Amino acid sequence: MEEHHYPALYQQSDSLALNARRKYFHLTIVKILILIIVAIITSIAWVQQPSLRTQATTVLTILLVLSISLTSIMSYRRFDRIWFVSRAIAESVKAETWKFMMKAGQYQGISTNSEAKNRFFDSLKQILNQQSEVVLYLNPNFQEMEQITENMERIKNETFENRLNYYIQNRIHDQMLWYGKKAIWNRTQEYRWFVITWILEILAVVVAVLMIVQPEGIVNPVSLIMAAGAGVLSWINARSYSEPAQSYAHVAQQLALLEGRAKNVSNENELATIVLDVEETIRKEHSIWVARLL
Questions:
Q1: How far apart, in whole angstroms, are the C-alpha atoms of residue 175 and residue 182?
Q2: What pLDDT, in 10s, does the model give residues 154-175?
Q3: Range of 220's domain?
Q4: Model's pTM, two decimal places?
Q5: CA–CA dist 33, 146 (Å, integer)
Q6: How many domains does the chain have?
């Protein structure tokens, strides 16, 4: 289902999550680059370059001030927290949207469309109240935007067979493929950065030995290599490839099993049950990431 077919609250929180994620990683990269540049400056024997010592000290001071400023900004703005909380809101709204369209959970057996809509609005309000800290960053006019789109109403009013097929293809199968691809991507990245870290560690040992044999060089690259290694570890910690690789693979496997079950659904009650199982499976995965903030 296209992004604009979801409620305005989903679109707003999804955009906020993507923006906070981008800022968090950009600031992390800048901090790592500053760390490496500082290592380059401190690895040079400035005693042998007295005419440049003042300039080097000035640059070093500026970089350290920038590093402290970035740390303060990241601690104060907490882009990582905004990212996770906004993503939690977006995914909760998405799950509620599918329950609404499939008439599952609290929407099962409701005779009037107005009652279903009222329950949906109440659910959005409850989701927002649970994560009220990010409301400040949302578009103040989002509440006036469309929360129940035409596409949502159209799918909700489709026949049982059409809704079932739509859910299997556009929710279960779509999410199964997404989690599967993300699991593979994270495993690949984890291995790639592990190899880079391993190479840097070996290189640091080799250079250290060479520095003992020939200590007269004007540059001591050991500290630079160690700084690069620390930077790589900081990046790996920020991205945390291992956890999502395992979590995504597990969810993809569960969704594959649920897809098989969904193809045997024959009535509204069974459809409602499978919808709740699928949405709970996805919810558990997202709750793991929110728990990282606690």
A1: 10
A2: 999 999 999 999 999 999 999 9
A3: 3-291
A4: 0.83
A5: 43
A6: 1
